[in-house]
Amino acid sequence: MVVSKRLALLEGKPAGSLVIHEIYRSLQGESTYVGLPFVFVRLSVCDARCVWCDTPHAFQQGETLPLDEVVARVLEHRTAHVLVTGGEPLLQPEVLPLMTRLADAGLEVLLETSGAHDVSAVDERVVVVMDLKCPDSGEVEHNRYENLAVLGPRAQIKFVVASRGDFDWAVDRCREHDLAGRFEVLFSPVFGAVAPRDLAAWLLASDCGGRLQLQLHKQIWDPSARGV
């Protein structure tokens, strides 16, 4: 019942359409593509409720658009890179043909996903940036480890760290699944909860193969700002 309420905005959505929270152009603030101009396609609705979520405004706000219009709006920006994010994009099946069409148009496509949903149907040209939720997120039990077997070598695994306990848990997962040997591994501090210098020190001491990632957009603009 709780999940159904979370997905209410998608009920009655016409086939072939997407509920979009916003489409805008800015600098990529995360992943190994940090600092590059990107078009951001933020889909509405999420079935997770991470304690530290910084986009709760995407849960229950959105505009229903035909797939063709979403593609057209992205291409209008004439930008080589596009990030499909949310919310949780994989809650809407039409996101799969959206990403394929954007890749067919010659764009470099990234997908940000929580890691709770099957990624096996994602176009192999798409760079998947997948969370593994740490315990302090409140969503650790929803991690779908089966995804690790189907992700390609260009995939990036992200840990959002809210405490030293989160970090130690993430390092254990890295070693258990040889994540750094298979993918790019990103460690991001929860803004205002973990000092970047502390996370840097933990990474240096652990030698787990991970990369420190800061949210560049929050360093440049107001951390609560939207559309940047």
Describe the structure concisely.
The model has no long low-confidence stretch (mean pLDDT 93).
Task: Supply the key terms.
alpha/beta; 228 residues; 7 helices; 23% strand; 26% helix; nine-stranded mixed sheet
List the helices and strands and how they pair.
Elements: H1 2-6, E1 17-27, E2 37-43, E3 63-66, H2 67-76, E4 81-85, H3 95-104, E5 108-113, E6 127-131, E7 156-161, H4 164-177, H5 179-182, E8 184-189, H6 196-206, E9 211-212, H7 216-220
Please provide a written account of the structure:
The protein is α/β, with parallel strands linked by helices. The protein is 26% helix and 23% strand. The protein has seven helices and nine strands; from the N terminus they run αβββαβαβββααβαβα. A nine-stranded mixed sheet has the order 3-1-2-4-5-6-7-8-9. The chain starts with a helix and ends in an 8-residue tail after the last helix. The relative contact order is 0.14.
